[in-house]
Amino acid sequence: MRFGVNYTPTHGWFHHWLDFDLDEIRADLDSIAALGLDHVRVFALWPLFQPNRTLIRPRAVEQLVALTDAAAERGLDVAVDGLQGHLSSFDFLPSWTVTWHRRNLFTDPEAIEAQAAYLRTLAAALRERPNFLGMTLGNEINQFSGGPHPDPHPASATRTGAWLRRMLAACEQGAPGRAHLHAGDDATWYRHGHPFTPEQAATVGAMTAVHSWVFNGTAQRHGPAGRATEQHAAYLIELSKAWATDPARPVWLQEVGAPAPHIPPERAAAFTAATLGAALDCPHLWGVTWWCSHDVDRALADFPELEYGLGLLTHSRRPKPAGRELARVAAGWRAEGPSPALRTTALVLDPQPQPQTPPRTRAQDQLQDQAAQAQVRTACAPGGAFFEAWAALAAEGARPAVVLASRAADPAHLAARGITETVRPSEVPLGAVPPPARRTSREDGPHA
User: Fold this and answer.
1) Which residues lie below 8 Å from residue 42, measured CB to CB, with a gap of 6+?
2) pTM score of the predicted model
3) Residue 181 has what DSSP assignment?
């Protein structure tokens, strides 16, 4: 089990690459290591590393290697995100992909080759570093592919699937055998029609990554101390396994945090403890990487308000209650080394497509499949029938797994996952379903 943090530099935030100061970075990493964490996830600002389609700046790559070496000196492993992409409501795309030089990130052949070269170069620069875990393609880069992004790069699921495999192959060429993967926001699981799909998340790459944020309607519906809120991360972990073809595929809780005001600051430590307790009760969890290491300096303008206080440590590198709680849980887990039991009861996820009147054409079949997929993702989102049924079971003290209806009658699949009982959402008494609430996006701000 790994416990780490998404590294947000105290000196200049992610703009620190412009004024790279290794002493400041070492001080940041010292404060992270003092919490007893074992890895950091770091973010290269894409326009600074690849300002021209055929120019990958050697000095920027050297700085990334220097940061990785500084982490190694403190016993910290490093996972690297390449295509940044998108961070805390700000987009960072190189000029050769926008306006007069507009290229679709996911479909333009020249853009695809340039991205592959960039990711391969970063991976190759780190391949000899024993503390290099692997590449994540980018931070929630899926959000560029459609709404609600104000300037999307549209692509079909077929094209995004091809893009993912091309990018991951480039990472593998650069650093063979490392844990290369991709990661998206919860649109992957919750937004109908989104071209990055649950199947891609759960089958492509070395492991599945989930990002859990309760400002997506969960905390608004269930409250900061609601069971659905405290188990949202565990829900996403278990939901992702429904699409996995490997029953033992590892899942990385790559982002999770306590966003105010949805989680009041005085509840941050309790939320951290409850979230970790539920997530660590999920079999095949690779690790937890909290968002984020340090608070954002309030001298920096225009962040959504919730972004400023998400750190485990203050901007002056002092531990906060959530940071101390994560440190306590990590130390306890390492001392006791518990292994969570398999989840024997599974909630059945069924798209329940609308029946069609025969005869049916191939086009009608495709439309029905699309409608079914839309229903699945809508049902899985906060307020959806499946989400609320899972939350109700969890509130009763159950430990529900998730299985697709197409696999619920497959004895071999159930046995491989340790499932001995299946339950349909219609069999779960929900009581009073909380009323709809406005989703507060992490992107609220200049693009809201």
Assistant:
1) 7, 64, 67, 68, 78, 79, 80, 81
2) 0.93
3) B
Distance, in Å, from the CA atom of 429 to the CA atom of 63, rounded to the nearest integer, reads 55
Nearest partner of 140 among 87, 90, 180, 184, judged by Cα: 184
**Residues 349, 26: contact at Cβ < 8 Å?**
no
Would you give the DSSP letter of residue 99? G
Closest CA to 389 of 342, 349, 343, 435: 349
Identity of the residue numbered 395: A
CB 143 within 8 A of CB 184: yes
DSSP helix/strand/coil, 136 = strand
Burial of 355 (0-12, 13-18, 19+ CB in 10 A): exposed
Q: What's residue 444's pLDDT? A: 42
Alpha-carbon distances, residue 53 vs 50, 101, 171 (angstroms): 7, 11, 18
268-279 vs 321-336: helix crossing angle, rounded to 10: 30
Burial code of 163-191, b = ≥16 C-beta within 10 A, e = fewer? bbeebbebbbebbeebbbbbbbbbbbbbb
Residue 18 one-letter amino acid: L
Per residue in 127-140, pLDDT (tens digit) is: 999 999 999 999 99
CB 187 within 8 A of CB 142: yes
pLDDT tens string 189-244 = 999 999 999 999 999 999 999 999 999 999 999 999 999 999 999 999 999 999 99
For CA atoms 26, 32, 35, 37, give the dihedral sign.
negative
Q: What mean pLDDT do residues 296-311 have?
A: 97
pLDDT for position 147? 87
Spatial CA neighbour of 68 closest among 47, 42, 49: 42
How far apart (Å, rounded) are the C-alpha atoms in residues 272 and 403? 27
Backbone φ/ψ region at 196: left (φ over 0), alpha (ψ -120 to 50), beta: beta
pLDDT, tens digit, for every residue of 233-286? 999 999 999 999 999 999 999 999 999 999 999 999 999 999 999 999 999 999
Q: Does domain 2-336 have CATH number 3.30.70.100?
A: no
Provide the pLDDT for residue 352.
61
So where are the chain's domains? Answer: 2-336, 345-427
Where does residue 143 rank: exposed (0-12), middle (13-18), buried (19+ CB within 10 A)?
Answer: buried
Q: What are 52's two structure tokens?
A: 């021209």
